[in-house]
Amino acid sequence: MEHGGPRRWARLVQEAKASRIKWDVLALYLAYRNPRTPRRAKLLIALTVGYALSPIDLIPDFIPVLGYLDDAILVPLGIRYAARLVPFEVTQECRERARREFVKGSPKSQNAAVIVASIWVALIALFAYLVLKLFR
């Protein structure tokens, strides 16, 4: 057996799962923009996509095991439950469109990055305000 064979296989499986999650996140984003998607679904989609694209994690990645565990559990659960709230036809259309986008290359959105970063800055500012108010 080739040196590092099982590790290489595990890495390939992990990369395939990560690619699938990227497709699903893009499909959810597309479903969010679809007018046939219910408002309840849009709220869960916004939370899931925002967390998946956020540069800041609930549990930082440098913490052993737990750092990646939140991404491995929270994002797939959010995808699963949000997709259940979206009409089947919309889900299928958005998944197909997401696959076509990934064939062209991984899509990037500067607008989404600015929105996610703005939300985190607003949350940090709110937290700082509450802490300062608490200690006055």
Total number of helical segments?
Answer: 5
Overall average pLDDT: 80
Fraction in beta strands:
under 5%
- Strand runs, count: 0
Relative helix content: over 70%
Describe the model.
With 136 residues, the protein is mainly α. Helix content is 78%, strand content 0%. It contains five helices and no strands. Helix 1 packs across helix 2 (39-53), helix 1 crosses helix 3 and helix 2 (39-53) packs antiparallel against helix 3. It is globular and about 55 Å long. The protein starts with a helix and ends with a helix.
Name some characteristics of this structure.
single chain, 136 residues, mainly alpha, 5 helices, globular
Task: Tell me briefly what this model is.
The protein is mostly helical and 136 residues long. The protein has five helices and no strands. It has one domain.
Outline the secondary-structure elements.
Layout: H1 5-33, H2 39-53, H3 66-85, H4 88-104, H5 110-134
Helix pairs in contact: 1-2, 1-3, 1-4, 2-3
